[in-house]
Structure formats: structure tokens, C-alpha cells
Amino acid sequence: MGVPKQLSEQQKKFAELLVYNEGRKTPTECAKEAGYAEGSCHVTASKLRNPNLYPLVVKYIGEIRTEIQKKYEVSFERHITELGRIRQEALAKGAFSAATNAEVARGKAAGLYIEQKIIRTGKLEDMSIEDLEAKMKKIYQENEVLIKGEYTLVDEKS
Question: Fewest CB atoms within 10 A around its CB: which of 3, 5, 46, 100?
């Protein structure tokens, strides 16, 4: 008898239903919807996914999955472009909040924002007034340039 050279329409339909409804339908439901006998759908679905019994069906399922992954692949360029498109549509509709959120998301994806969290143990209430003042003075001194906005230009040619 041997292995068939091509898929039947029923096998193709099963494979497509299985991949396109992943997580929403069971393989048994896909086999039933593809037209296999209701009483043996569970067994048929299992057999169709066995590469030793139905290598062409398993190969076709893999091809469809690969195609879908390529189609919906997330890359930096696609992500930034999609966020830009969303922002433009939001602006066109006057949804400025949504446009702003899309633009912020683009900036985060591009690395323009740095989120920093400092986790401390203990409470400020547990510190003495002197310790609090010393800590605040130290923070102020470390960040004085940022607070006052003073800076000097350095001539890079020298």
C-alpha cells in the first residue's frame, strides 16, 4: 500500500483547521469539522498528527505554522512601523491620548526611555532627622548639576 504521494482535501482541511484554530479548537473538533467520522474523530486526529503514519499531513501542518510565524513575526522595524501607523490613525481621529501612548511605546521600543526603579528596604520614618538630612544633602550634591542646570562646554578640538 505505502504512503500516499499527496494530501487529500480532507487532510488539508484538517491541517488548516488545526493550525488556524490552535488554542480555540481541539484536534478532535478539527477532525470532525474536516469531515471525518464523528465516532472516530479522536483516533483520526491523533493518527493524522503522527509522522510515522501521515508524514505529509505533519509536514503540511509544519509548513502552515512556519508561514504564519513569518507573517506575524515581530521585529524592531515592524514594531516601530506599526506603532507609527497606529499613532497616525489615532491623530486622524483626534484621539490624542491614544496617539501619545503609541508614540511613547515607540520611544520605549527604540530605547529612548529608561525606566528605573529603586527598591529600598526599611522606611524613611525609621531614620533619624540627622540621617535624613545627611541623605538628602548627599543626593543633592550628587545631582547638583541636574538641579541647577549648570554646565561647562568642553572644546573637543583641544
Answer: 5
Tens digit of pLDDT at every position of the chain (158 positions): 555 678 999 999 999 999 999 889 999 999 999 999 999 999 999 999 999 999 999 999 999 999 988 887 767 788 888 888 888 998 999 998 988 888 888 888 877 777 777 666 667 777 888 888 898 899 888 887 777 776 666 666 65
Q: How far is CA 55 from CA 4, 16, 63, in A?
A: 9, 15, 12
48 contacts 14 by C-beta, under 8 angstroms: yes
Residues 31 and 17: their CA atoms lie apart, in Å, by 8
SS3 helix, strand, coil % of the chain, rounded to 5?
65, 0, 35
The single-letter code of the amino acid at 105 is A
pTM to 2 decimals? 0.51
Which are the contacts of 58, defined by CB distance < 8 A and separation ≥ 6? 49, 50, 51
